[in-house]
Amino acid sequence: MPPLRGEAVQVVKVNEESGQHCLELDEGALKRILCKPELQHKKVVVVSVAGAFRKGKSFLLDFFLRFMTSDDPKNWLGDPTAPLVGFHWRGGADRDTSGILMWSEPFLVKLRTDEEVAVLFMDTQGSFDSSSTVKQCATIFALSTMLSSKQIYNIQGNLQEDNLQHLHFFTEYGRLAMKSGSNEIPFQHLEFLIRDWSYPYDYPFGSDGGMALLNKRLEITPGMHPEHVSLRNHIMSCFSRLRCCLMPHPGLRVATSPNFDGRIADMDPEFVEQLRVFVPLLLSPANLDVKMINGQSVTCRDLMEYFKAYVKIYQSGTLPEPTSILQATAEANNLTTLIRCKEQYIRQMNEVCGPTRPYVASKLIDGAHQTALHEARQLFAHIPKMGGDEFSKPYIRRLERELAQLLIDYKESNTNKNTLQHMKTPGVLAVMLLVFYVVTGFFELIGLSIISNLFIVPFWILVVTLLTWMGVRFSGHASQVGEVIDEGAQILVDWVISPTVEKIGQRAAAHALGVSQT
To answer: What is the DSSP letter of 361?
Structure first.
C-alpha cells in the first residue's frame, strides 16, 4: 500500500481563553489546502464525521484515508498488523479533537462522468464533552453539516429521538431556504452510522438493516406529536439522501487495551467484515457527491469563501438564527459567482492582450473588453444565485468596477510591452544588418564582388523586415505578422547570436588564462 501523504490540519479553532468559546478560522491553513493552483478550480467532495465525543470519529476517518490511499479496492484494508495512521486518535475518556480539522492533501478521484474532483476529509470536535457548552457543540455540528456534501452522523448504540432533534436547526434553515425561492434541496447526503449496534436479530448489521431502522424511526404514525411529525417531514425534505448503516462493536481489545494502535488483527472479525463493505459503499467514485449550493457545483476555491462566510456568523459561539445563515450563504454564493465571472473575463482578455501576447492597438483592447464584459454580465445573470435580483445588484456593480480596473491594468501592460519590445527585435535585426554590411564591404574590398553580391539580398530582406516590424508595432495592427518577426528574432538570438557570443567569450577567457582550446 502506498504511504499516506499529508497530515491533519486544524482549520477552525475554538478560542476558550475568552470564556465565550468563540470560533476562529485559520484562513492561511485553509488556503494552503484549498487554493493550490492545481486544485482551486476542481469541484470538491467534502466528507465529514460528526457526533458525540470519544465515539471513534477520527478512528473511522483513518480507515477512509486508508481506502483512498489503497491501489487495491478489493483488499483496501491491507496489512492486518499495520497500525492505523492519519487523523490523531486514541482510546480513553477525554476529548482528543478540538474545532474542525481537515486532511492537508485532498484526494483526486475520477467520477463516473470521467471528471476529476478533489475529495476532502473533515474531522470535528465531539459533542457533549465536559469542556464544551451545548451551544458550542451545536455550532460545530451545524458548521460541519453546512460545509459537507457527505455528513456521517456518528451515533453510539441506537438511533433515538434526541439524535433526530439535533437536526431540527437544519430543517428550519432548509425550510427558509426553500421559502426564499431556492428550488434546490439545501443539504445533500446524511449518513447515520450506528456504532456498537447490539440488536442484529431485529435489524441486521450493514446498510440493509440500517435503512430498515431509519425508515422505522422516520415513520409517521397515528397519534404522533405534531412537533415530531413536523421534524420528520422536514428532515426528509431537507436532505437529498438519507442513509443508515449498523456497525457491530469493534471488539474488547479495541475498547479496553491502552496499547491498541488500530491493527486490524486486534479487531473483531465481524466488525472488520462490515467495515470492509461500508467504506467502499460510502467512498467509491460512484457514490461520491460533489458539494452543491443552490444547484451549483462548488470548487475548492469556492469552498474557501463559504468557510469564511459561515465561520464569521458562528464566531460568537452561539447558534445564529437560520435567517442569518441564509443571508451568509447568499453572500458567499454571489461572491463565488462574481469570482467565476471575473476569471472568465481574464481568460478572454488574456487571449487578446495577456502577458504572453504582443502589443496590440488600444481600440482592439477596448473591443475585447466590451465583448468580455457583456459575456461576464450574461454569466452572472445565468448562474442561479440565492437572495434574488435585489440582493445581487451590489455584486454585479462590484463586478463591473473590478473589470473596469482590470481594463486599465491591461492597457498599462500593453503600453509597457510596446516600450520594451522596441529594444529586442529591432536590436537583433540591426545587429544582423551590421554583420551583413561589414561582410559585404569586406568582400568588396578584397575584390570578391561575386561573393559580396550573395549577401545583398538577405541584407535588403532584413531592411524590409525591420520596417515592417516598426509599422506593425507602432500601429498595433496585423499583430500576427509582428509575432512571426519576434519569433524569428528570438530564433536568431537562441541559435546564432547567443552561441556565437558564448564561443567568443570562452575563447577570450581561455586566451587570458593561457589555456589552449581545440
So the answer is: -
Q: What sign does the CA torsion over 354, 358, 360, 364 have?
A: negative
Model's pTM, two decimal places? 0.71
469: left (phi over 0), alpha (psi -120 to 50) or beta: alpha
Cα-to-chain-centroid distance, residue 145:
18
Q: How many residues does the chain have?
A: 518
Q: How many CB atoms lie within 10 A of CB 218?
A: 16
CB 117 within 8 A of CB 43: yes
Distances (CA, A) of 465 to 429, 440, 482: 8, 19, 10
Kind and range of the H or E element at 51?
A: strand 44-51
- The amino acid at residue 231 is L
CA distance 151 to 231: 19
Q: Which three cell numbers stand for residue 187?
A: 443539504
Name the burial class of residue 445, with classes exposed (0-12), middle (13-18) and buried (19+) by CB atoms within 10 angstroms of its CB: exposed
Contacts of 307 (CB under 8 A, 6+ apart): 11, 12, 25, 30, 147
Report the distance separating Cα 306 and Cα 329, nearest Å.
7
CA distance 378 to 394: 16
Is the backbone of residue 294 left (phi > 0), alpha (psi -120 to 50) or beta?
left
Q: Which residues pair with 124 in a beta bridge?
A: 100
Q: Which residue has the cell 476532502?
A: 120
Averaged pLDDT, groups of 10, the chain, 518 residues long? 84 72 86 92 93 73 92 88 79 54 94 92 66 62 87 90 79 63 77 93 95 94 88 86 94 78 88 94 90 90 91 70 77 91 94 84 90 94 82 92 94 75 71 80 79 79 82 72 77 74 61 50
Chain centroid to Cα 410, Å, comes to 27
Helix axes 300-314, 134-147, angle to 10 degrees: 160
